[in-house]
């Protein structure tokens, strides 16, 4: 399953379209990422009416590598 959700962003594209991007963290032993992606792409539109979805799946040492850093930490 999913152990963490971060970098969730939701914004309007127009008066009728909404976009969503999210990073999902899975345990190292999780399998079948494709099934998770299909489920997200089915459930999010059904439950929230959002059809423009981008999902990044993370696991292992790369978890959190995409998180924003402050300008002073670069």
Textual characterization of the structure:
The protein is of the alpha+beta class. It has one helix and three strands, in the order ββαβ. The chain has one helix spanning 33-48; strands at residues 2-12, 18-26, 52-58. Strand 2 (18-26), helix 1 (33-48) and strand 3 (52-58) form a beta-alpha-beta unit. It is flat, with a radius of gyration of 14 Å. The N and C termini lie far apart (33 Å). The model has no long low-confidence stretch (mean pLDDT 86).
Outline of the structure:
By secondary structure, the chain is an alpha+beta fold.
How many structural domains in the coordinates?
1
Uncertain parts: none
The fraction of residues assigned to DSSP E strands is 35-45%
CATH class assignment: Alpha Beta
Distance between the termini: 33 Å
CATH architecture: 2-Layer Sandwich
Shape: flat
Strand order of the largest sheet: 1-2-3
